Each structure stands twice: as C-alpha cells, then as structure tokens.
Amino acid sequence: MTLSDELSKLTELRDRGALTDEEFARAKRLIHEIAVARPQRRTRRLRPDSKGFALDVRALVRASLVTGGDPVERAFRSRKAAPRKLVLILDVSGSMDAYARAMLLYLHAARAAGRRVETFAFGTRLTRLTPELGSRDTETAFAAAAARVTDWSGGTRIGESLKTYNDEWGKRALTRGAVVVILSDGCERGDTALIAREMERLARQAFAVVWVNPLKGHPEYSPQAGGMRAALPYVDRFLAGHDIASLQALGTVLGGIERRHAA
Q: What is the pTM of this model?
C-alpha cells in the first residue's frame, strides 16, 4: 500500500488511491498545522504582563521617575511559557498498516515544529527515529525511517517495546516532565501484564500520557484488546486517530494540557 493510499484513508478525501498531488500537498500542510500545537510549561523566567501575579518592582520604580516618584501605574509580571518535552511513540506493526505511514507524516511534522520532540517506532522492537525524521524533506525522512525500522508491518510487542523505552530512555530523564503520546491500536501478542507494569513506570515519570487509537473512531469500538485494557488505567487522554479530525483533536489536547488529569 502506497503512502498516498494510506493518506487518502486517513483524510477521507476520496476513494483509496485517488489523491491528486494538490490534495496530497494540502493534506501535508494541514497535518503540519496540527502538529505545531505543543504542550506548554511555565518556566521560572518572568515576562511583563498587565494581568500578571508578580509586581515588577524595577518597572514600577522606572515609571515613578516620570511622575516625580509617585507610582501611578503598577507593573506586573507572569511566568513565561515554553514548550514541554514531547515524546511520540508509533506502532508500525501489521495491524496498524492502514494508519501507521500516514501517522508517520504527523510525527515528521511534529519533529519539524520545534526542539524537545523525540520520535520512536515499534513493532516487535523499539526504534528511535528522531534523527531520521529530522530532514525537512518528507520523502527523504520517510526513506530514512523505512531503512531504520526493520520490523515494519510485522508482529507486535508493546510491553517489551515500552520496557526498552523505560530502560534506555526513561533513565536518561527523557520522560520526566514530558507529554508522551502513544499511537497504537493496543493489539498485543505478548504478556499484557508487562504492558501494565511498563505503563505504570511511564506514567510515574511523565507529565501526562496520551494514547491515540485509530480503532476508537469506530462507533461500536470498546477497548477489548488485552493490551489496551492493561494500558488504560495509566492513560490520561484516550483519543481516536482514524482521520484528520481526530488528529486535530489531538492537537487541541496537546495545546491545552497544563497539568496531569485523571483518565
């Protein structure tokens, strides 16, 4: 299945495989706009803000010099916002074939949106794709990612892949304070108890965990897959991921996350 075929399924623009070059470019631009949304955090640095909470003494003194020492107008400051770390982990196993390559377009756009974005893929093993998706050219990035991932469209080992992430990258403080987004249908062939243990480890360090499941977009869907049931208690936001509208919802959620919420 070609990228255009899968992207047409994601966007629902036309029947499978019927995207024109213009429609493909338009879809890429839209996904890029969605991917720009980043979770924010409050830093210790202060900036001028008329509605701020902290009195800006220096600005107050400077202004009072003009009025002969009388503080006519008060100046305030508030904490400056900065992008929070974002970790994106994409399931590229066989059961995700209809969505994974199109979702990779989202990962590539998010990677290009700014610093402090890390990207991974997994099937039977975890692969870091941050360097490969660093290219501005989509096709170049996709070719590099395809060459890097050796288990594309194969089996699924969610628990083992999460364990690898926690063991190798969680210990490097990559997860601490980050918003972690897992894009997967939750279908697991291995030990679901391992998923629960590793999701608990992940949730303890992350600011928030978001799970994007393309199957959730179907009206009759319920999380019956063992892997999904094991993961849900540690998920803060459980979202669909089957079309552009659901990715827009993801962008809205990421742009509005300010503190950890219950699932």
A: 0.77
Q: Residues 102, 6: contact at Cβ < 8 Å?
A: yes
CA distances from 218 to 104, 214, 231, 243, 260 (A): 21, 8, 19, 11, 27
Q: How far is CA 106 from CA 141, 243, 244, in A?
A: 12, 12, 10
- Smallest CA-to-CA distance from 237 within 259, 204, 205 is with 259
Which stretch of DSSP H or E encloses residue 110?
helix 97-112
| Residue 12 backbone dihedrals phi, psi, to 5 degrees | 55, 35
Q: What is the pLDDT of residues 8-59, one digit of tens each?
A: 554 543 333 334 566 556 666 767 776 766 666 555 554 555 555 555 556 5
What is the C-alpha to C-alpha distance for residues 230 and 185, in angstroms, rounded to an integer? 13
> Rounded to whole angstroms, how far apart are CA atoms 178 and 155?
28
DSSP bridge pairs for 118:
87
| Coil/strand/helix, residue 55 | strand
The answer to whether 206 touches 111, Cβ cutoff 8 Å, is no
Provide DSSP, 18-52.
Answer: ---HHHHHHHHHHHHHHHT---EEEEEEEEE-TT-
Whether the Cβ atoms of residue 101 and residue 8 lie closer than 8 Å to each other: no
How would you write 112-165 as a 3-class SS string? Answer: HCCCCEEEEEECCCEEECCCHHHCCCHHHHHHHHHHHCCCCCCCCCHHHHHHHH
Can you say whether the dihedral through the CA atoms of 145, 198, 233, 208 is positive or negative? Answer: negative
Other C-beta atoms closer than 10 Å to the C-beta of 193 total: 11
- Helix-helix angle 97-112:138-148, to 10 degrees: 120
Query: Angle at CA 83, nearest 5°, toward 78 and 84?
Result: 105
